[in-house]
Aspartate aminotransferase family protein (Pseudotabrizicola algicola), 456 residues
Amino acid sequence: MNMITNHLPTAELQALDAAHHMHPFTDANGLAAKGARVITRGKGVWLTDSEGNQIIDGMAGLWCVNVGYGRKSLAEVAARQMEELAYYNTFFQTTHVPAIALAAKIAELAPGDLNHVFFAGSGSEANDTNIRLVRRYWDIKGKPWRKTVIARWNGYHGSTMGGGSLGGMKPIHAHGGKIEGIEHIDQPYWWGEGGDMTEDEFGLARARQLEEKILQIGPDNVAAFIGEPVQGAGGVIIPPRTYWPEIQRICDEYGILLIADEVITGFGRTGNWFGSQTFGIRPHIMTIAKGLSSGYQPIGGSIVCDEVARTVAEGGEFFHGYTYSGHPVAAAVALENLRILQEEHIIEHVRDVAHPYLQERWSALADHPLVGEAKLVGLMGSIALTPNKATRAKFAGEQGTVGFRCRERCFANNLIMRHVGDRMIIAPPLVITPEEIDVLIARARTSLDECYAGLK
Ligand code: PLP
């Protein structure tokens, strides 16, 4: 076989890809028919594809490239670490400097007494760890019956068996099933499901479903509640302001562990280091991944509070871990990424460009005839496409693919936006400038216009 490089013609790369590469979350038939877009380079918020198109990445890859593409110092740190110690594990009472330094840095940045880190290779793995960790915690506390974890419909916590089960996406459950001991309550999606309630009333009503579920299962059987501060993959559902305080009250009242899945909202996305700070949540455990290394290396983890970590330690050995827990190269790169976020004041930059610059331009999209709602927190935003703004109706039947069509128009206009049903979402690299925001908004508007024209 010829060497496969960027220099091969796109069609040849696409044919090889369709023949041998099984893609995640992709319809393989579509791939064979149309071919995947081949991305070849990245710099800042910009991607280049194999046809030389300059694409603005409105999704930071998969919500992860927080510091932007093409950072030389991250490559240098990785190379140096590979030469010095490419791999060693953290099992059986061994450790190494990158894992020590990264855990200490995360403990410094995380709020409250979240001072301990269990490393994983991804967000899904970290959530699998969380299931085992909270069950182990209650075992040691002498309450082994406290096993159930409550999560939300349309939440996303990964696609391993544990992560996929915690998530509330039925198509994922349908492929491979769901583990036992996970229960779901409804999501706090006011625009889509709030009916006649005010946003505040709806936020309280949806949070109180947690209390109802706890009482139904029996408080002594519930180990934990898990939620994303802002549902990302579910469509950037920003909860009503009444929601999280009520969830916090209920967890406190029933002594239930609270897990904030910060895989997307961590490391600056909402304008604070963690989404929990933006929404006033006091979790016992945080799930992290993505922005931890800005996607330059695969790494995730669970940040654990003093009490849970102490209890698990009292129980002796926890029979759990991954070959790549605290991988030295990933840890060194993550540490350098945190240095960049901090020293370049990127979280302050998020606050500066998001409010009011992006906020004003994003909200203005609600004037478009296709758009019912345009919402944003920090640098994650969504718009809801609707045939009727007044009734907040959904597109029906054949038209139910409007989100997909709109995403295709974005692609054609060299803007990456994602669709979740008929919600369009953005989460660009956190280093996006006002000028680049103007490009993003202009391309989004053109794409909406083209999509709307295609419906008539
Ligand atoms: N949790 C949340 C909130 C996520 O958004 C994701 C991925 O999108 C995950 C967990 C899973 O992370 P990973 O894909 O790294 O396994």
